[in-house]
Amino acid sequence: SGRLSWVKAHCLLPLLLLDIPGEWRPIWVGWAERVTVRRLAGDVERMLLLRAGHPLAWQRCELHPGRTQDPIPPEERQMQSPGHAPRNRTDNRADLKQRAAVSTA
Q1: CB 24 within 8 A of CB 62
Q2: Rg from Cα positions in the chain
Q3: What is the number of other CB atoms lying within 10 angstroms of the CB of residue 28?
């Protein structure tokens, strides 16, 4: 409809092409009309990262683009892949000592 510059449309394209159902696309186009190109590019990049690794944050921001740059709450952060129990430093040291003993024997 000509409401967005070609630069903003280009920024939005990777996000809008995602095969995800819902009414979030018009909301993001409206957001793009109100923010700068720099902000829009940062928000789109962040949304793609959230989609890849933080589904709860994606859901929060999907209909609220202004929250895209909010920090991820500590309880939602994950430092290791799913299904792996975190190891503490003591475990790592013991594992290294055991490997060193086996490799020198």
Answers
A1: yes
A2: 21
A3: 21
The model carries a pTM of 0.69
Helix and strand element counts for the chain (H, E): 5, 0
Mean pLDDT per 10-residue interval, the chain, length 105 residues: 87 94 93 96 94 88 92 75 52 59 60
* Dihedral class, residue 101 (left if φ above 0, else alpha if ψ from -120 to 50, else beta): alpha
Give the total residue count for the chain. 105
Angle between the N-to-C axes of helices 37-53 and 24-34, in degrees from 0 to 180, rounded to the nearest 10: 150
Whole-angstrom Cα distance, residue 46 to residue 44? 5
